[in-house]
Amino acid sequence: MTNESAENAGTDDFADIDEDVRVLADDLLLVIGTEPPDAPIGPGSTFFEDIGLESIEFAALAGRLRARHGDRVDLTEIVAGLDIDEFADLTVADLARHIAAARHEEPHD
């Protein structure tokens, strides 16, 4: 992750990170529909290799996150700061930390 606030934020700083992971996993299951991944979605699951998310599903997830969290959680903005390897290795926990950090930031204008 390249977002400094997310990098510096430990799970102790955001007591609800487990809840963010659970909600994010639920959103992912809704996005992928009737074909869940072979393994349960967990904090260490990567979006593309482990979950098998397609680009259209990733876009749908971005929409769900914006609807749930508002402009504070902009998945496009989050991934724009990642290089290709970081993007490929992005895990559910990484995104959950971004979500938790965004809740503690001032809203975007």
Put the structure in a nutshell.
By secondary structure, this protein is mainly alpha-helical. The chain contains six helices and no strands.
Using DSSP, what is the number of strands? 0
Radius of gyration: 13 Å
Which secondary-structure class do the elements indicate?
Answer: mainly alpha
Query: Into which percent range does the helicity of residues fall?
Result: 40-55%
Q: How is the main sheet built?
A: none
Calculate the terminal CA-CA distance, rounded to whole Å. Answer: 24 Å
Q: How many domains make up the 3D coordinates? A: 1
| Tally of helical segments | 6
What overall geometry do the principal axes of the alpha carbons give? Answer: globular
| Percent of residues in beta strands | under 5%
